[in-house]
Amino acid sequence: MDPTPQALPRGSTAPRQQLSEDVASYVRELIISGRARAGDFLRTEPIAEAVGVSNTPVREGLLLLSGEGFVELVPRRGFMVSAFSQQDVRDIFWAQAALAGELAGRAAKNISSAQLQHLTEIVAEHAQAVSAGSDSDRIVRLGHEFHRTINLAADSRRLAMLLASIVKQLPNRFYNDIEGHGEDTLRDHPAILEALRKRRTKVAATLMRDHIMTGADDLIDMLEKQGLWAEEEKKSTA
Known about the structure:
By secondary structure, the protein is mostly helical. Helix content is 71%, strand content 4%. Keywords: DNA-binding, Transcription, Transcription regulation.
């Protein structure tokens, strides 16, 4: 897995809000991959060059990240990378799990026969794709479609929007690496579907929360193997 964020095409005509979000996504990747460490100051020029934007969207993107706690603005010095700990990962996933669990519980009440059939087909396709060793992109797409369908079935637009705002705090590639490949998904998705089919709201909510929280442990293990917290561990054992 290549930890290097990919530069975006220069001369983009995307709206300015999208450009600032592109910057935020790029810098999150730098931080979570360990290429930008806690205490580092972020220079706007290299970021602008990499993303292909002017300095204004860079500053706006960094302000977005300051609101998420990834960076902090130091007067007269600029934006500094904040610490990103294992507990931060767990907190992000906990918030996701709480919202996704509530949405799953609501979906168990509201889900239509057509949506249940769609989920049944997704679960079957996913299991077949994993068994056949299909390309990872297809497996990931099926995993995402499973969750998207449940969120839509909940018919709770505002709650789904809140969930989306939390999900974007981690780069997509991390979700892609942990969603759709492990035994956890092959086990959990059919169980969640069964709870939805039987209209068991509490069971569906609990299963979804547990499923999401498993991803936190998987991601922490992945980031530890990449050496994200290696320096901190050395300091603590010195």
